[in-house]
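I have a small job for you when you get a moment. Would you make up a two-line entry for one protein for me to read? No commentary is needed, just the two lines. Write everything out right here, beneath this request.
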Amino acid sequence: MKNTEETNSFRVRIDKWLWAARFFKICHRSHQRGKIHLNQQSIKPAKEIHLGDELRIRKEHLEFTVIIKALSTQRRSATEAALP
């Protein structure tokens, strides 16, 4: 996912980023049930994220680890969201 702002002052909430990065189906209300952790801490939907942050997302018996490499609040194509 491309970075829409190159400056460090660009702020993105975790709930907006999850939607833009197309994790929304996995994560819908998951943050309220303790299934999403940011840098090993439980979070609220309004928590700001930064480049390099680590997300751990649990869904059923699976756990995903995601390192944030770009920030965006605009939803992009699924192909772009899946880029490493």
